[in-house]
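dumping this here before i forget
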Amino acid sequence: MARQGLSRALVTASWLAEAVRAGRVGAGLRVLDASWYPPKERNARQEFKERHIPGASFFDIEECRDKSSPYDFMLPSESQFADYVGGLGVSNDTHVVVYDGDEVGTFYAPRAWWMFRAFGHKEVSVLNGGFKNWVKEGHPVTAEVTQPTPAVFKARLNRALVKTFDEMVQNVSSLKFQVVDSRPEGRFRGTELDQGLESGHIPGAVNIPFHSFLSETGHEKSIEEIQEIFREKKVDLSKPLTATCRKGVTACQIALAAFLCGKRDVAVYDGSWSEWFHRAPPHYKVSEVKRSKA
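structure:
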């Protein structure tokens, strides 16, 4: 992959600040705040109304999902996604930059990045370092909410980037693709609860907590450092790879990290542990802790 193509997956705060100053935010460049927080901790939409990057719109992951699914944040249909992002002024010719306000630097933005890619949109980038570093570097913020002119977006799901429960079950025996789990080590091993669920992991999965790819400042680590992380875990980026987590969010950090290394085709198991826990047979839930029930 060309170096330019790699760097397009990330944009710097200084690059975006210059675009904002130059008045380039509009039909050709849309900035989306994809923040989400547990309701009892923070209110993402309210924080957006109070302070955001000038010209940005709020990408509501609670709205842009399959609301009929019992699992969190499952992908919406092609038409639902197209209607939603079209309402944010995004067309197929728009360069989209996504960010979030999490304290780690980047948390939910890679999920939005992956959603755009899954629906066929290539011109999408993550703001490296997130909103916290945007503010730290002294770039402008505003409470003014802009209303973008609606656009037409045509979505076509790239099914190669999405894994289903059945495909994950088949892979336990076929081993057609590698599986990397991005959750914290305790949840992967089954020694701590996973947001209320008994934890553990899919047989054969490798654990690389998503924060491994972030520096202390909240920026993505260098490509060389990311490659070394994959090597240490014996993950071969030349072979098929699927990422999983709790609800299909931090798994997208694995997809982004691999993309930066030149691997564009990492799939995400959209249901992740929230679906696997409820649907997989007991012997397909690997844990160091004896379960109280199947």
